[in-house]
Amino acid sequence: MASIRSRGARIVDLIIAALAFVAVLICLLPMLHVLARSLSSSEALIRGQVTFWPVGFNIQAYKFVLSDSKYTWSLVWTIILTVIYTLAAMTMTVLAAYPLTYEKLKGRRLINLMILFTMYFNAGMIPMYLLLKDLGLLNKPAVLVIPNVLSVFNMIIMRSFFYTIPTSLRESAEIDGASPVMILTRIYLPLSKPVLATLSLFYAVGRWNGYSDALMFMNDRRYHPIQLLLYNILKSITSIDVATLEGFRMPGLNETIQAATVMFATVPILLVYPWLQKYFIHGATLGAIKE
Q1: Distance CA 280, CA 286 (A)
Q2: Are the beta carbons of 170 and 183 closer than 8 angstroms?
């Protein structure tokens, strides 16, 4: 009977492993296809010979991308923007979530209600544009940081994690004379590394992949993030005006340049995952196991 159960368990494990392998392939194959296109010749792409392996291997597309200051500055600016935005967003998230863990906070329910209200309802894009215009933020780098500096969803996750920290730790610190700020920096934050890493990754990926706010609120091309530059490259295929406005040096951008730019805009953020993997895995399972 035990052997039958163990055999059944092995079959289930094999099925799960096979499904996981298929899921990994579904995620990797598009990236491998784009990588192969970026390293293939234009003739091979035109003939449709490229699948998941380069045909007519060359790195001319990457040489072009790296030699153009427009691309390199856009990448550097996006890295700077992502770091600043992530730090600002995590600071706001912590400062919004931590006070709400105090049961004696006056008006806590009303504050929670007001915060949740903004999660489900908003005025829309036109009022947002008019507000940013009145505040003098249009065409300034701050417009890419301030409007979305706090995610209510992430704040709720942070607050929920803070609730799991025993109140006895806070009470003991208060008896010893610790201030709320000291309790936050010396107790709550050191115990919250998994959720801090997870939410930082969420914020960083969201900012790195975002371009709609820059498209609507930022006319100065010096502060266009890499994703907006990629968007304009794809638009330039069908629009001569966009290509002229962006100042692309190579007339008639071919598909090799497109693929190289996609890799150029995707790989840097992927390199962040291995550094945060152990925290991210733990943070993704928060609440799944009750201790």
Answers
A1: 10
A2: yes
CA distance 39 to 257: 9
User: Alpha-carbon distance 34 to 25, whole Å?
Assistant: 14
Residues in contact with 237: Cβ distance below 8 Å, sequence separation at least 6, in sequence order: 253, 258
Residues of the chain with pLDDT under 70: 1-5, 236-254, 276-291
pTM of the shown model: 0.79
User: What span, in angstroms and rounded, lies between the C-alpha atoms of 235 and 243?
Assistant: 8
**pLDDT tens for each residue of 3-52:** 655 777 788 888 888 998 898 888 888 888 888 888 887 777 777 777 88
Give the DSSP per-residue string, the chain: -HHHHHHHHHHHHHHHHHHHHHHHHHHHHHHHHHHHHHTS-HHHHHTT--SSS-SS---HHHHHHHH-HHHHHHHHHHHHHHHHHHHHHHHHHHHHHTGGG-TT-TTHHHHHHHHHHHHH----HHHHHHHHHHTT-TTSGGGGTSTTS--HHHHHHHHHHHHHS-HHHHHHHHHTT--HHHHIIIIITGGGHHHHHHHHHHHHHHHHH--HHHHHH---GGG--HHHHHHHHHHHTT-HHHHHHHT-SSSS--HHHHHHHHHHHHHHHHTTHHHHHHHHHHHHTTTTS--
Determine contact, residues 43/28, Cβ cutoff 8 Å.
no
Which pLDDT score is estimated for 288? 44
Of 210, 211, 254, the C-alpha closest to 234 is 254
Residue 9, Cβ neighbours under 10 Å: how many? Answer: 10
pLDDT, position 241: 47
- Closest by CA to 187, choosing from 256, 101, 273, 124, is 101
